[in-house]
Amino acid sequence: MHRKSHQCGLLLNHLGFLLGFVILIGDPNVAIASIHDYTKGVFVPLSNSFFFHGGSEGHYASSDRHSFIRFESVTFKRTKESTALYHDKQQKTGLVEAIIVESQDRDKIGGAYFNSDQICCTAELHVKKYCKVGEVIINPRSDNSEWPKRIQTFFDGKNEETSMVNQTVYINRTGMYYVYFMFCDPDLDSHGMTTISGRTVWQNQQGFFQYIYSTCLEFLYALVQVRY
Ligand SMILES: *[C@@H]1O[C@H](CO)[C@@H](O)[C@H](O)[C@H]1NC(C)=O
Ligand SMILES: *[C@@H]1O[C@H](CO)[C@@H](O)[C@H](O)[C@H]1NC(C)=O
């Protein structure tokens, strides 16, 4: 247990996020929420992208909106230097994408489906009509073209900060879900790091089943009961 905790601690430090947990108990059904807090989280290079792991949880499908991932006050901050080339009135001067993907669909992120190890779309791949330049490559599911889900947030002008619109993504297929925050623009990194803060709230009516997948469970989950 101790050793496991240590490994989990290292893992969490590496991923740069803090976890807090709350149980919400309502009548008659039990809903459990897990909160992933990001404090100046740092993006790391991955292939030709930059990447921040926003969390993963097992979710049960819910047809009545009890299973969801909510983005709250998620804010990206870039350095002043990285805005040097832009004008005040210029729109869309930087893009960060939140990607929500179910475990089975993880190979739909990036160019694996056309045998490329690129994650971000390049001009060459765009010409071949695979994707849009500057975006993460996503190969949509054949049964639901909305998934894996992509939520785009742009910087405008010389602004050093931009925030995602607070929003809730409902889960109606059971599975292990991942949230990745990603950007493709090297300018967001080469002039000092772009960081993320804010949080995601993951709620699940019947509780999570992460323990099936995660050896870190005992360490990760300190559950607090709250009545509402
Ligand atoms: C987003 O949600 C957080 C937490 O509920 C809240 O404090 C914040 O004011 C919201 N932001 C906006 C722009 O509504
Ligand atoms: C649930 O998923 C189906 C496809 O799998 C989709 O058509 C439908 O809009 C989704 N419902 C909700 C409430 O998200």
TrEMBL record:
GO cellular component, one term: membrane
Annotated signal peptide: 1-20
Keyword Ribonucleoprotein in record: no
Keywords: Membrane, Signal, Transmembrane
Statement: the UniProt record of this protein carries the keyword Cytoplasm: no
The protein's name in its UniProt record: Transmembrane protein 87B-like isoform X1
Organism: Carex littledalei
